[in-house]
Every structure is written in C-alpha cells, then in structure tokens.
C-alpha cells in the first residue's frame, strides 16, 4: 500500500502536523531535496481532480514571478507545480485511496480522524 507524505523541512506548520502522527511505515519526502515527479503529480491529480487544489497561492514565487493566480489555468498550475517545490500546498498525505492536501483546519481534522488521533 502506498503511504507518502510530501512536506518541507523549513515549514514549521508542516513539522507540527507531521509530529502529531505515527509515520513509521510512511515514506517521507522532503520536496526541496527531492521535488515531486510528474508521475506523483498525476497521482495526486487523479485524487483531487484539480491542479489548483494542490497549488499554494501563498507561494512567494507568485509575487517573484509576477503571476496573477486568478488568471492561471489548470495547465499553468500543473507546469508551476512541476517547476518549483514551493507551489505545492503542504503537507500532502497520500495513500491508495486518500489524499489530504494542505494545512487548513478541515484538512488537519480529517487527517487526525484518518490516523485515529484526537
């Protein structure tokens, strides 16, 4: 069974979320050291049905590149996600049947339920 977590080591929020769970049998991927592959992005997309859902609109790269997030297409989101690790909304927990993207309250609550942690 696939069990992977994509996260960023320099992200305090990521570290806080990961610390809540027993990730012994999970593959941990630090996305700055080892960026996501095209295949992994496709796998995530299959579960979310949207590249935008995986895209962090808080990425500092948006401003640096002068991008207007509102005018981006799914294809743009896909290319940007593959181009720079900060565009991935983090952390991403993915299994054969589930995906949990980002650090908003609802997602963290869903993760806690998934892991059976309150």
Automatic annotation (TrEMBL):
It comes from the Bacteria. InterPro entries: Arsenate_reductase-like, Thioredoxin-like_sf. It holds the Pfam family ArsC. Belongs to the ArsC family. This is Arsenate reductase. It comes from Chryseobacterium taiwanense. The lineage of its organism: Bacteria, Pseudomonadati, Bacteroidota, Flavobacteriia, Flavobacteriales.
């Amino acid at each position: 069974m696939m069990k992977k977590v994509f996260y960023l080591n320099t992200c305090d929020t990521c570290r806080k979320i990961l610390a809540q769970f027993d990730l012994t049998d999970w593959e941990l991927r630090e996305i700055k050291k080892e960026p996501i592959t095209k295949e992994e992005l496709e796998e995530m997309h299959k579960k979310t049905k949207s590249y935008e859902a995986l895209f962090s609109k808080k990425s500092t790269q948006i401003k640096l590149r002068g991008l207007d997030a509102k005018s981006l297409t799914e294809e743009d989101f896909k290319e940007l996600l593959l181009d720079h690790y900060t565009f991935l909304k983090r952390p991403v927990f993915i299994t054969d049947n589930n995906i949990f993207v980002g650090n908003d309250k609802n997602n963290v609550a869903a993760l806690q339920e998934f892991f059976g942690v309150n």
